[in-house]
Structures are given as C-alpha cells and as structure tokens.
Amino acid sequence: MDLNLSLNNSKGLLLSEWINSVFDSYPVESGKFLKNGKNRFSNPVGYNIAKDLETLFDFIINYSDSNKPKIRESLNNFLKIRVVQDFDPSVTINFFLNLKKIIYSNLNGHLNNTNDLDNLMDLFNTIDSIALEAVDIFVSLKAKIYEIKANEMKNRFGKMADRIMKKYGIDENFDNDTNLSEGS
Amino acid sequence: MDLNLSLNNSKGLLLSEWINSVFDSYPVESGKFLKNGKNRFSNPVGYNIAKDLETLFDFIINYSDSNKPKIRESLNNFLKIRVVQDFDPSVTINFFLNLKKIIYSNLNGHLNNTNDLDNLMDLFNTIDSIALEAVDIFVSLKAKIYEIKANEMKNRFGKMADRIMKKYGIDENFDNDTNLSEGS
Known about the structure:
The structure is a homodimer.
Chain A: H1 3-9, H2 11-23, H3 28-35, H4 44-61, H5 68-84, H6 89-107, H7 114-168
C-alpha cells in the first residue's frame, strides 16, 4: 500500500471528518452554524477553520522540513481563534491527535506488512510533532494575553498615581526609593 | 501476542529508556548527575522523576478509569518541577508521546495480526490522552505563576499608593471615581 497515495485519494473524506470533529467541539447551536455553508462572508469563522485545517492536512500528508514556517503560520491562525474563545488546551490539541484516529479507522485492514506499519507510525510521529508545535504556540498565545492584562493593570495604577500626584501637586520624586517606573 | 503481558515483562527495559530520555533533556552535566544513582537523599530530583515516571508507566500499561485521580497526581508532581525549571511545554509533553516510540521500537516484529495492532493503537490513544491531561496541567501551573506575579505587582503598587497617601495625609476616598480597590 502506498500510504501517501492512499491518503491523497481519501483526502475529501478524511478532511471532512476532521473538520467536523472540530465543529462538534463547539456548543451545539454554534457547531451547527459553523458546519452549514462554509461561506467566506456569511460564516467567516467556519470558513477560516476549514481553510486552515485543509492547509494543515496537505502539509501533514506531504510533510517536509521546508514547510515548517507555513505549518507554524496555519497553526497560529487556527489557535488564535481557540485561545480567544477560551477553549481548554487539551480539547484544542486533541484535534491534531484525533486526525490519527480518523486515518487509522479509514485505513484499517489495508495495512499489509511491517513496511506499511512503519510508514503509518512515521506519519503519526509527524502529526505528534505538529501537535507539540501547537502546544508551544497555544502557551505563548496564552502568555501574551496575561502580558496584556498585566500591562493594563500597570497603566491603571500608573494613571491613578498620576491623578493623586496632580491633584495634590506631588513631585514624581516624592520618595527616593520609590517612583512610578518601579516594577516596569 | 498479549500486549499487556509483553509490556509488563519488558517493564525494566522500557522504563529505563523512558527515564533516560527525560534526563537527556537536561543540560549535559545535570543530565549526567540525574542519571547517576537515583538516591532519595543525594539526588532527590532524579529520584522523584524516576519514581513519578514509574508510577505513570504502571498506570499507563494497566490503565483503568478509576486510576485517573492518581495519574493526575503523578503528572502534577512531575510537571511542577518542569514548569518551575522553565522547560518548553513541547519538550515536556514530548516525553509522554516519546513512550510510544520506545514501545513501538521494542515491539517491532511482534505484531502478528490486526487484533495486536488494534490493541497497540488503544494503548497509544491512552498515552495520548495522558499527554493531553499533561497539557492542561502544564497550562494551569503556568497560569498560577502569572497570577502570583500579577498579585505581587498589585501589592507593590498598593504599598506605593499607601506610602504616598500616608506621607501627604490623603484620604482613601480622595477621588470619587477612583479608589485603591479598583482593579482588584
């Protein structure tokens, strides 16, 4: 069995199962909406998820090191939405691992020898490494949100301090061991 | 082939490969130290990593839903050290996925039929689900660190504001639309 050929031939089926597994992770009504009509303008979130997953699917089954930057870009687009929508990391990362189950259940019975199995394991390792890349991106996107919140807090306190100082005519060097830039 | 029996019989070999793959992720000198003599008192970090991974290994190859709380506890112990030591999430989560490669390379050639393969896939799915649990725990431990930092910042600003107000005899209701509890 030529694994690559077989996956390219079943692309439509595998990809639609994969995309639907992502839409099913949304609350029932949203999931239904996302599934219905992947039109760029009437359903931009559904359209973008489907587009990013198709790009990733092609990169996964025709994997090469030179595609890494493009894979990272697609992962970033897909994960940005999930982080902002506050999905659990495990639910999000599971989509990548899930693709293996979808592939295995569609290939089952067509694995004829050790060579086929080795090729399948190589593909699964590739999917795992993309899932790990997704973990790093997910964590760094989360970290960015925390940084934004921390900066907002700093700004709020800074403005409050400015207001106090302005109102009472306090010089910003009022205290030798403390100034407003502390903690920046 | 009885997969479970085979894994229990090879436990020593598989576990030591797995533990060494974790130690190898540390800088060379630390890795060497961690590997040498897993004594509870002279090498507590190495000892604890090896202990947590053995517990996890037993839970994985004899998996049952009732063990989930214990698995979570072992993961938490293992991940706490990694988060504090500031390891990349992907490097850390990879240890769990890595166990599959170790198992596959040791079993290779002993998979005789579709049933064996289905059992192996079930085991790999179990390992994946434990890796996903690890992702959630890793992210929540990271979030805790961010919260601690945010609280420290709040305290520092709060103390600074207190100092200004004390020094200038300012009432805490100095400004109707602003007080120090804002942003808590």
